[in-house]
Amino acid sequence: xxxxxxxxxxxNQVIIEAASSQAYLAMASWAECNGLNGIAMFLYEHSDExxxxxxxLVKFINERGGKAIIPQLNQPTNTFKGxxxxxxxxxxxxxxxxxxxxxxxxxxxxxxxxxxxxxMQWFVSEQIEEEALARNIMDKIELIGNDKGGLYLFDRDLxxxxxxTNNDSV
Length: 170
Ligand code: FEO
Description:
The protein is mainly α and 170 residues long. It has one domain (4-165): Ferritin, core subunit, four-helix bundle (Ferritin). 81% of the residues lie in helices and 0% in strands. The longest helix has 31 residues, at 114-144. The chain binds MU-OXO-diiron. The site of MU-OXO-diiron has 7 residues, from helix 1, helix 2 and helix 3.
C-alpha cells in the first residue's frame, strides 16, 4: 500500500500537471486567435504533454494501491500582452513545476519510498528538458526583439518543431 504522505504529494502533483495543461491550452488558444499558428500548434502539443504527465501520475497512484483524485481547476489566464509574455510565463511556470517535483522526491526520501522515488526520476529528467527548451525559446525571443519578420520566422520554426514531434509520436 502506498505511503499516505507520498500519495498526498503525488495527488498534489496531479493538480499541478493538470493546471499546466490548462494554462498552456489557454496560451495556445490565444496564439491561434492572434494568427500565430506555429506557436499555437507548439502550445497545443505542450498542453497535451502535460495531460500525459498528469495521467502518468494518476495511473501510478492507482497501481500502487492509492486513490488518484481528479481535481477541479481554477480558470487559467486567457489574455496575454504578446509572445514574450506567454513564454516568460511558461518558463517561470516550468521552474515552479521543477520545484514541486523536487518536493515530491523529498517526501519519497523522507518516507523511504524508493519505488516512487525511482518513478519520479522520469519527471526530474523531463523538467531538465522542459526548462532548457523554454530558456532556448526565450533566448530566441530576445534576439527577435520587435522585429515582425523575426516573429514570423519564429512562428514557422515552432510549427516545424511541433510537426517533427508529432511525426515522432505517430
Ligand atoms: Fe509536466 Fe511541464 O511539467
